[in-house]
Amino acid sequence: MLITDEKLKELLLNVKVLDEKSLLDVETYSKNTDTSLYESLIEKDIITDENLGILIADSLKIPFIVLSKISIPDNVFKIIPERIARKYKAIPFERDKNGVKVAMADVSNKMIQEMIAKKTGQKVYAYLSTERDIYSKLYIFKKDLQKSFDSLVSEQLKNAGKGASDAPISKIVSLIIQYGYQDQASDIHIEPEEKGTLVRFRVDGILHDVLHLPKNLHEQISTRIKVLSNLRTDEHMSPQDGKLRVELEEENLDIRVSILPIVYGEKLVMRLLASHFRQFSLVDLGMREEDLEKVNKGFAKSFGMVLSTGPTGSGKTTSIYSILKIINTREKNITTIEDPVEYRIKGVNQIQTNVKADLTFAQGLRSILRQDPNVIFVGEIRDSETAGIAVNAALTGHLVLSTLHTNDAAGALPRLTDMNVEPFLVASTVNVIVAQRLVRKICEMCKSSIEVTENDLDKNLPPEVVKKYFGEKKDMRIYVGKGCEVCHETGYSGRIGVFEVLSVSPAIKALISAKKDSNVILEQAIEEGMTTMLDDGIIKVKKGLTSIEEVLRVTKVESL
Fold it and tell me: What is the Cα gyration radius of the chain?
């Protein structure tokens, strides 16, 4: 760290980012979770990573650079090898006749500066950048994965000497995982086909074909992954689930493994539980200030329920984890029951469900209530039994966080009554409901603006939405990604959330008790100022963060 924690605290107090009491809370959280003060400030949504970097740079009188907002020429980026850039957290980003500008997480590292100066024969100018920003830039600077894999696998096969059957399988499996991690894939699919094996990465929610392997490698790859996951290597006809841990340069990566027999062999899916997926705060996820305030009020209470809704892969668990990090203090006993436990949070008691041992959500929840908890996180409310226990826990002085599978925030309330929870109990316990989807962000490297007409928008959006956000203009300017090497020609890089946050007001409580349907509740929430997911998405379109196509893809507007 460039400055001491004491100096950082002084800076934060001077610019009034927080007061002394709040700072003490963050320090306590930092000690309890073994997290740096810098990371704790970001995790608790006190300040953004970029603003904290600017604050430190200003105090040290060092220029600051945000790499995610600039384009770096390939020849400049390659001044130092990627492994060196990753190790020393340094990226050259600009070069002209005056010298080379280098973004560094630690500008006091003279060795890397001297190395660049010696290689280029030019003066080096050090700029401060945050570690997150540098790592993000390194991730998106990967080239075409198919070509990379082809050359790497060809090299492995050639080194094996006798052909594909003798290829060093452990190395190939390691390369697949390593490249998946570096490309920020959430899942790796290894699928047997009639004449070969297809490897696909899920990046930003979309599956991409990245590699074709010889058919006779598939069984060896499958066996290698089974060995690493402590699964049965002689079982080929039944599904198997396991987990493994891989030591990468950046971190120890936890991976969930699912194996399923299909027509041409065993399909393997690996879920990468990387730290760069769990570092997000609610602000990082794209929640607007008004919605954030509603959520903060919801979990600031010592009892009641905070619900997160949406389909699989919409970021529900990430949002709940972000809340848990904020409320995780030494004075609270926080216990979770999850299926599975995706990420470990220091200071939180996390329980993994186990059907064979009769440790279901309902049974686990009953046991948790005997453990004197303050906060309970139930991974998902799936049935009437779990719903009933969760609601009773919220009534008896516990803060309960959970997830539900419903299309929108208002739909969560009738869903609970469908699970045989009395309407008056739902009205009494639910504090706030967050519905969300994840949309792909427009790639900053190839973002450009285009002009669209009112008629173009009317084809896809309800007229009232067009009028509300674009006014009476006949021509409007929005943003798109043209596609480049950085985003693999998709026009998108990274994801952001679109949210609707329903705060349960007295009027909405009355509607719940009267057993009104979700449409009536939704109308009342909108009347009280709730922004729907579609509205939040259009706001992000106007800001140039995402595209209309992405918003429509995840919100599924009925007029389409």
Answer: 25
Burial 111-133 (b: 16+ CB within 10 A, else e): ebbebbbeebebebebbbbbebb
- Are residues 271 and 294 both part of a single domain? no
Q: For position 109, which CATH number holds?
A: 3.30.300.160
Q: What is the DSSP track for 256-301? A: EEEEEEETTEEEEEEEEE-HHHH---TTTTT--HHHHHHHHHHHHS
Same domain, 127 and 176: no
Q: For residue range 108-154, list pLDDT tens digits in order.
A: 999 999 999 999 999 999 999 998 888 777 765 554 455 655 666 66
| Element containing residue 85 per DSSP (H, E) | helix 82-88
> Please, are residues 133 and 140 in contact by the beta-carbon 8 Å criterion?
no
Q: Is residue 469 part of a domain?
A: no
3-state SS assignment for residue 405? coil
Distance, in Å, from the CA atom of 325 to the CA atom of 322, rounded to the nearest integer, reads: 5
**Would you say residue 519 lies in a domain?**
yes
pLDDT of residue 409: 94
What is the rounded distance in angstroms from the CA atom of residue 334 to the CA atom of residue 349?
A: 6
Residues 6+ apart with CB under 8 A from 177: 188, 246, 253, 255, 270, 272
Average pLDDT, the chain: 87
CATH number at residue 285: 3.40.50.300
H or E element: which one contains 23? helix 20-33
118 and 216 housed in the same domain: no
**Rounded CA separation 224/270 (Å):** 13
- CA 539, 542, 544: angle at the middle one, nearest 5? 115
Residue 169: give its domain's CATH number: 3.30.450.90
CA 544 to chain centroid: 20
**Spatial distance between the Cα atoms of 303 and 327, rounded to a whole number of angstroms:** 13
Same domain, 382 and 526: yes
Q: 3-state DSSP call for residue 374? A: coil
pLDDT in tens, 28-64: 888 877 778 888 888 787 888 888 999 999 999 999 9
Let me know if residue 315 belongs to a domain.
Answer: yes
Taking the C-alpha atoms of residue 39 and residue 26, their distance in angstroms, rounded to an integer, is 10
C-beta separation of 295 from 306 below 8 A: yes
Report which DSSP code applies to 121.
S
Q: For the chain, how many residues are written?
A: 560
Give this prediction's pTM. 0.76
The Cα-based distances of 82 to 337, 338, 476 in angstroms read: 40, 38, 41
Q: Which of 108, 63, 116 shows the shortest CA–CA distance to 91?
A: 116
Same domain flag for 81 and 149: no
User: Looking at the 3D structure of the chain, how many domains does it have?
Assistant: 3
Structural domain of 413: 280-438+497-540
Residues 203 and 269 in one domain: yes
DSSP 557: -
Residue 348 sits at the vertex; the CA angle it makes with 305 and 363, to the nearest 5 degrees, is 60
| Tokens found for residue 477 | 């300017």
Domain boundary among 79, 107, 138: 138
